[in-house]
Amino acid sequence: MLYIRPDNKKLMVVECKSMNKTSYDALANPLTDHVLQAMAYNELLRINGADADDYVTIVYVSKDFSFKNPYKEFRVCRTEQSNLDIQ
Known about the structure:
Blueprint: E1 2-4, E2 11-19, H1 21-26, H2 32-47, E3 52-62, E4 71-77
Parallel strand pairs: 2-3
Antiparallel strand pairs: 1-2, 3-4
């Protein structure tokens, strides 16, 4: 999904992923392939002349009902992605 940030009017890639409760509960960082996928979309926007944000967001949602937080959000900067502790 693309989101227009209200603060800078740039396009931000938002990647939404669902996973089972066990994987969701164990998730402390975004998965590497999901970060790479979102970064690829961001780069395609740039190549095609869009004003893309330096950040992408990966949102994980648990497939199982929970009274706790139903989603986890990770924001990754394209220039700092190599420094992240991604899984």
